Automatic annotation (TrEMBL), chain A:
Belongs to the binding-protein-dependent transport system permease family. HisMQ subfamily. Pfam families: BPD_transp_1. CDD domains: TM_PBP2 (cd06261). Keywords: Amino-acid transport, Cell membrane, Membrane, Transmembrane, Transmembrane helix, Transport. Signal peptide: none annotated. It is a multi-pass membrane protein. InterPro entries: AA_ABC_transptr_permease_3TM, ArtM/GltK/GlnP/TcyL/YhdX-like, MetI-like, MetI-like_sf. This is Amino acid ABC transporter permease. Its main location: membrane. The lineage of its organism: Bacteria, Bacillati, Actinomycetota, Actinomycetes, Pseudonocardiales. It is found in: Cell membrane.
From TrEMBL, chain B:
InterPro entries: AA_ABC_transptr_permease_3TM, ArtM/GltK/GlnP/TcyL/YhdX-like, MetI-like, MetI-like_sf. Keywords: Cell membrane, Membrane, Transmembrane, Transmembrane helix, Transport. It is found in: Cell membrane. Gene3D superfamilies: MetI-like. The keyword Magnesium does not apply. CDD domains: TM_PBP2. It comes from Actinokineospora xionganensis. This is Amino acid ABC transporter permease.
Length: 216, 298
């Protein structure tokens, strides 16, 4: 286990790099996914098409392929940047599809009678959306959305294999590969580092779920 | 879309407005596509030498390229199939023992499941590939991939099976027990057959996840589809075209599987209605399991 303490700085930096990647990707995918969900429930057919095709494309394509496409495809068309940003782009594009589905199913889970009642008492579209539909939808959306985000955190490990240096997976690769350290302690450390992120996140999600749960 | 919660069936004015926005959105979409097209064209991405090895049978490399892609796909399917079978067996065992056994054992299983669910599947695969050789277990890369995938997916499937068993009406178990069946018999003869039926859609969805995750084999040099694509790209330097093709292959296969899952789900719930059993329908929806299969994302 000494290897973990000897390389503690490496682990710590990797831990925070992973958190940083996740934070960017989370914000991006929540924003993009919500917009896409708006597209999917909108009355305008072309917008619905965009939303539906996005979901079908990215949900059925491995993240690895999306990452490769961003990392090697984008430079080909003259878009250059750091692998760091390419990988965040890929994570956002991919995760947004799942966020979209979670949000959409939340909106659809609100009983139609709620919106009909809102319209019947004369609320406008905006009013009924913000005061009736969304407050109820958000509660239903929390559990699946949380699972999507936790899965995204785990997926972020894949970007380490794409030359985004310094995050947790890359640390494990460096230590067991070029530095030739024994794999078991190194990887145990990496596993613990991931559990330090995912287990509290899962516990927080469970707490949040109970807090916003509604009897319907 | 008249069934939407958000708006009524549109009247004449709303229809005009929808029309207007549709036209605007279409124009925007076409403009976006044109920008992409122009950029691709400017960077010579439509040159024949980038496409013909993949799509033109008369090209010299065509046969070789497709032979490689075929090998890659065979390897992908092989790893996925093995991982599915192992995950199914181990997952069912985990779930069954969790439902029936003594508390201390149940806690071990729950701990195991929670632990493995918290680890990225890439790390699981990498762990297996790097640690097993240290203990003198050297295997083909495929087995590392299969073991890694199985570790991760068996706990997901265990949760699906457990949800399936729990979704059955309580009377099923009670009736079976009152007939004098042993616990094992209750599970084997009464609960599991119904549970499997109920969770078939969720299991098919998990198949999509496993198929997608085999692409992680590239980190341990397993020659699956995505790694083969990488080699093709190195030789032909056409990443956009090759990865596009690979993406389309994955999307077509997985989309078909997803549709099949939805179809099975619909069939099962129809059967339920026809049989007029109680409405707490025992179909485990793929979406309900987003928690268990958080991986749906991965």
């Amino acid at each position: 286990m000494n290897v973990i303490f000897e390389n503690f700085a490496l682990y710590r930096d990797g831990f925070f790099k992973t958190l940083l990647i996740c934070a960017y990707a989370m914000v991006g995918s929540l924003v993009l996914g919500t917009i896409l969900a708006g597209f999917r429930v909108s009355p305008v057919p072309p917008l619905r098409w965009i939303g539906t095709s996005w979901v079908n494309v990215f949900r059925n394509c491995p993240l690895t392929v999306v990452l490769f496409f961003c990392a090697f495809g984008l430079p080909e068309v003259g878009i250059n940047g750091a692998y760091f940003w390419f990988s965040i782009t890929a994570l956002v594009l991919y995760t947004a599809a799942f966020v979209c589905e979670a949000v959409r199913s939340g909106i659809n889970s609100v009983p139609a009678g709620q919106a009909e009642a809102a319209r019947a008492v004369g609320l406008t579209f905006g009013q009924s959306l913000t005061t009736i539909i969304l407050p109820q939808a958000i509660r239903t959306v929390v559990p699946p959305l949380g699972s999507v985000i936790i899965a995204m955190i785990k997926n972020s490990a894949i970007v380490g294999a794409f030359g985004v240096g310094g995050e947790l997976f890359a640390v494990s690769d460096t230590l067991t590969g070029s530095r030739g350290e024994a794999a078991l302690p190194v990887l145990t450390g990496i596993v613990i580092a991931y559990l330090l992120i995912t287990l509290p996140a899962g516990a927080f999600l469970g707490w949040l779920e109970r807090k916003v749960a509604i009897a319907r | 879309m008249s069934a939407s919660v958000l708006y009524d069936v549109p009247g004449p004015r709303a229809k005009r407005r929808v029309m207007l926005f549709s036209v605007l959105a279409l124009v925007g979409l076409l403009a976006g596509l044109y920008v992409v097209y122009r950029q691709l064209d400017k960077q010579n991405q439509f040159d024949a030498d980038k496409w013909s090895p993949l799509f033109d049978p008369t090209d010299d490399s065509f046969e070789l390229v497709w032979a490689r892609i075929g090998e890659g796909m065979a390897n992908t399917l092989m790893a996925a199939a093995l991982a599915v079978v192992f995950s199914l067996v181990i997952g069912t065992l985990l779930a069954v023992t969790r439902v029936t056994s003594a508390p201390w054992y149940r806690w071990i299983v729950v701990g195991f499941i929670e632990l493995l669910r918290g680890i990225p599947v890439v790390i699981a695969i990498f762990f297996v590939a790097r640690v097993l050789p240290e203990f003198g277990v050297s295997l083909e890369p495929m087995w590392y991939l299969v073991i890694g995938l199985t570790l991760y997916n068996s706990v997901v499937i265990a949760e699906i099976v457990r949800a399936g068993i729990n979704s059955l009406p309580k009377g099923q178990r009670e009736a079976a027990e009152s007939l004098g069946l042993t616990r094992g018999q209750v599970l084997r003869l009464v609960l599991l057959p119904q549970a499997f039926r109920a969770m078939l859609p969720a299991l098919i969805s998990q198949l999509v996840v496993i198929l997608k995750d085999t692409s992680l084999g590239f980190i341990i040099s397993y020659e699956e589809t995505v790694r083969v694509a990488g080699q093709i790209v190195q030789n032909l330097s056409n990443p956009i075209q090759t990865y596009l093709l690979i993406a389309v292959i994955f999307i077509v296969v997985n989309y078909a599987l997803s549709r099949f899952a939805i179809y099975v789900e619909r069939r099962l719930s129809q059967g339920k209605k026809a049989a007029k059993t109680d409405e707490g329908a025992a179909v485990v929806h793929a979406d309900d399991l987003a928690g268990a299969g958080a991986t749906n994302v991965g």
